[in-house]
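Homework help board

Subject: predicted structure for assignment chain

Our instructor gave us this sequence and asked us to write out the predicted structure in token form, then describe one feature. I got the tokens but I'm not sure how to describe them. Can anyone check?
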Amino acid sequence: MIEIIKRLRKYVIMDGQKFAAKLPERSLLYLIHTLALSKDFKESENIRDSVAWLEKMGPAIYCLLDALVSENQQFSPGVIHVLLRLTKQGHIASHAKNRKLDTKLYTLCDFTSALLEKRFPGAAKQECPIQPRLPEDILESERDPATAENTTDYFNTPLTVLKKGDGTVIVSIGSRSHDRSQSHDSDGTKRTRSKRSRSSNVERDDEVTIEDDDDAMDES
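My token output:
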């Protein structure tokens, strides 16, 4: 996946406007669009009713975010943030202004923003060097300049992202997030380890689950 992202990135570097449709970060919107249309994502006014489903989908979103950001930490997080913000101003093209579907779309946007912040703290403040466009085949932009920006927070529940030693990603939302933020030694003692990684201009901490017992995470 990283190699594909790199090849697409070359086109964007050559001419950001001409090859805007090849922007790798747009792939994230196709994933979000597909999930918003999923019948398993129940229509509900209460986000707690969808926690279990979001926890299942979270690792897929996070892994794609990780691939995009790892390939280009210099501006990828800023581009993703702008794309998510633009999506919250639009609608699903195949279901013109369907309020229920749009709400699910916006919830996934804010959920993805929360995951992005876990992967790259400060992403919302990073500059976006180009003007990205939404994929018109799946999303319809809000063209009314008088329309105010959608600042509603559709997902404001605490979450935890754990990366296990085998590369597995576990996303926990709400009250369960604290319980799962700890792992177990072979003697039963809970512990977490911070793994600090550096890039040229970014320092971040990732929680890494250390497990000697395959059933350790099931205890919560």
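Reply (TA_rk): Your tokens look well-formed. For the description, you could write something like this. The CA atoms of residues 16 and 130 lie 7 Å apart. That's the kind of observation they're looking for.
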